[in-house]
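dumping the sequnces here before i forget
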Amino acid sequence: MATGRTHRPATRSRGIPEATVARLPLYLRALTALSERSVPTVSSEELATAAGVNSAKLRKDFSYLGSYGTRGVGYDVEYLVYQISRELGLTQDWPVVIVGVGNLGAALANYGGFASRGFRVAALLDQDPALTGRTVAGMPVSHTDDLERIVTENGVSIGVITIPAGGAQQVCDRLVAAGVTSILNFAPTVLSVPEGVDVRKVDLSIELQILAFHEQRKAGEDATAPAAPAELPAGPHTTPRKGPDGDVPAVMPA
Amino acid sequence: MATGRTHRPATRSRGIPEATVARLPLYLRALTALSERSVPTVSSEELATAAGVNSAKLRKDFSYLGSYGTRGVGYDVEYLVYQISRELGLTQDWPVVIVGVGNLGAALANYGGFASRGFRVAALLDQDPALTGRTVAGMPVSHTDDLERIVTENGVSIGVITIPAGGAQQVCDRLVAAGVTSILNFAPTVLSVPEGVDVRKVDLSIELQILAFHEQRKAGEDATAPAAPAELPAGPHTTPRKGPDGDVPAVMPA
DNA sequence: TAGATTGTTAATCGATTAACAATC
DNA sequence: TAGATTGTTAATCGATTAACAATC
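..and the predicted 3d for all of it:
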């Protein structure tokens, strides 16, 4: 999810909607699995099931890329793998730097899913002298001091931030100043970037909070519901109440 | 992002849109920071800036929760912290289990942002005998064999899957069978769950691929563009071409 | 009262979905 | 030809946004 402020709103490439772009990697993954099993063709129904979407959406998505299917037959797996890869820009090599080699940075460095999709970890950076010089995932850890040099020398355009929130904005600024134009941010903070720089964020805590919301709702359907009767007998309600459910908060406003 | 198949479509709690729910944690984070600085009130404009959204959206979001602001003044920070926390279900304790104690699982176990928001790591599970018995983030690692017992005894309703894709579905099935109804999935695979179980996924590779798409587009605005003239002189185009741009693929369909 | 800021309205935009004509 | 499946249409739904009346 890109931050609202930094993400360009409607300048879609060849008119491919953002929601479609976000699903192309899902299709690509499912297609790659089919390709490895040497499956020659696949229908929109089968592929949609494998990708976890419905087939109407899939066909609509593919229609933005072109007419790559054959009526009555389906889609050629290899051909579609190539087309989606090309559309996503995965037919070229993307050097990335990972800033912050804690557990999360190490997890990313070790993740095999990157290399296979054209992403090459150009460098691991950390400011901890105890880490620099050491090897993580078969790569030496460089000092953050060398960020600008490494970004420039390797033509890095994608940076991954896996440090605590406190230092994230400063690292972000340095990455951008050095030429990085896409940032994947794992720090739980809002990053401010100039126009033209894309930021996507992955926020572990936020995901859990959204789950908690739905979890609470599930529980409430059985347990909490009786506290708020479905239908209240009509009567004078002269006391305006804060909030939709009259729940009295522990902390009242001034 | 929940998988399309498993996420209930429109059964919204008290009518709070899904997009709003996803932003509540952002507001909460910004408000917590203000609270720590003992700021008593905040305007929609200030808070929106801190959360990285625009103020119209924020006010609309808050309108779903109730009328918690004061015209001409703004919002009471403490009061709003409480209301959003309550709405998200963070005023209660949520025991979670983390299955898979590799770098990613360890990163999550060490993440301080959980405990402060009502999430309590009830157990760390791994199938590797070399890990079980050891301590990670001050907690003992239990063996995956004990999954059912631990989930039941601790009343766990939220499970986090941080193992490779291969074993994810099986672990998911066991979690669900044991009573878990919300799953945060880091494994790069589509999980199949019964109705009533929520799945959200965090996919590191997909985020990078989306960035690559936009990155490619930025580069294309300068470099690739000349290959496709903005306006083509009208003429006979008797040869129908595959794809919107006539790019000849390396792999042709059957 | 004058200034500030919320809460809501209404218009717009983007995404989803079912249905089916086109066509292999 | 008959059956299967795509690509597209059109309706619907949900999200965003600007503007401003309400009101502190």
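Residues 10, 17-20, 54, 56-57, 60, 70-73 of chain B lie near DNA strand D (CB under 10 Å from a C1').
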